[in-house]
Write a structure and sequence with these properties.
CATH superfamily: Nucleoside phosphorylase domain
CATH class: Alpha Beta
CATH topology: Rossmann fold
Mean pLDDT: 96
Number of domains: 1
Bound molecules: hypoxanthine
Structural class: alpha/beta
Strand order of the largest sheet: 5-9-8-6-10
Oligomer: single chain
Helix content: 25-40%
Amino acid sequence: MIPTPHIDLEDQNLIAKTVLMPGDPLRAKYIADNFLTKVVQINNVRNMWGFTGYYGKKKVTVMGSGMGMPSIGIYSYELFNFYGVENIIRIGSCGAYSEDLNLYDVVLVEQAFSESSYAKTMGVSSRKILPANKTLNNKIKKAAEKLNIPLHPSIVHSSDVFYRLNFEEYKLIHEKYGANAVEMESFALFANAKALKKRAACLLTVSDSLVTHEATTSQERQEAFTKMMEVALNSI
Ligand code: HPA
């Protein structure tokens, strides 16, 4: 059933088996422009740009996911279910819940905790914690080792709310569920992978800290993002 409502592409072969998904479609363009060769644009519906190209000899697609679980839920479902995608690696940013995480650290998500009803509503799981795919995570760990980039394997909190009124509640989530950082997408991505028997993983760069209230500038984020992207690209 292609094209889908959100990806206007007739030819399934133009999408690689592995897709890297930053939240921001401009980041997808940045990756395509700076790291890939033989690039073709595969989507522009809602400006949710996607590109397929080659990283060395490896065919890869990069496409924005948008922010939040409903958005990544839609795009990852369509890629997995209608375009033959086998692996999705989200590459995003997160806020630190733990003093052990510093700005620009690269987090490898091992499990995502969420209050979200996404997995339950979908009918895939009533669990509050879903795992990343171990095979993908092992490949990511190997790539990071080779590049000498330290990873911080973590449980993350996939939150529905960015501007939580009582932001101090992060402490409870940190204590109760062991979540070291917060972002807004992994749980839905992992739920879709489980529902469709596909593989999903997530790398995050720490962009702010709820503990120390430090934050990064957009220029600094861009540079730190490059490290994480190299890990993701070299893992495929
Ligand atoms: N909250 C939610 N998502 C995020 C944050 C945050 O503080 N930082 C980066 N992504």
